[in-house]
Design goal:
It is a single chain. The chain is mainly α. It contains five helices and no strands. The radius of gyration is 16 Å and the shape is elongated. Helix content is 77%, strand content 0%. Helix 1 (9-38) packs antiparallel against helix 2 (48-72), helix 1 (9-38) packs antiparallel against helix 4 and helix 3 packs antiparallel against helix 4 (105-125).
């Protein structure tokens, strides 16, 4: 897989911001998983669903961050992957947030923060200068 040299300063800045936000997303997701471990003895705070979703969120965030680093370094394939994966994760978070009583409030807040970061990443990856950088 070859990397493109990102010469457009606007695209380079947007890709850097996207990579940084994906790092923030990974940090929030991993800290959320750490909180799940710490509070696992309290069934009011940590349910089985929180364990499952929190684990998936942490793994997905780390994979997405790795793709984002490669994208920012000019990988066209990982640019496409980040666009699709980030958008799919936003949809999943919206669905989870909209189900009443499915998760404790603290977990929904953490998910909301992750979703907000990913929405910005999606907007950045769909920006004209970034799309032009990775055009065929």
């Amino acid at each position: 897989m070859t990397n493109r040299t990102v010469t457009d300063p606007d695209a380079r800045e947007k890709l850097h911001i996207a990579k940084t936000l994906l790092g923030g997303y990974a940090a929030v997701a991993v800290l959320t998983l750490l909180a799940i471990v710490v509070f696992s003895g309290n069934p009011g705070l940590v349910t089985d669903a929180v364990w499952v979703r929190g684990s998936i969120l942490a793994v997905a965030s780390l994979v997405t961050f790795a793709l984002g680093v490669s994208m920012a370094n000019g990988s066209r394939g990982n640019y496409r992957r980040v666009k699709v994966v980030a958008l799919a994760q936003v949809v999943a978070i919206v669905v989870i947030e909209s189900i009443p009583g499915s998760f404790p409030v603290w977990f929904k807040i953490a998910n909301g923060v992750c979703g907000a970061l990913l929405v910005i990443v999606v907007l950045l990856t769909f920006a004209r200068s970034v799309r032009a950088t990775f055009a065929a």
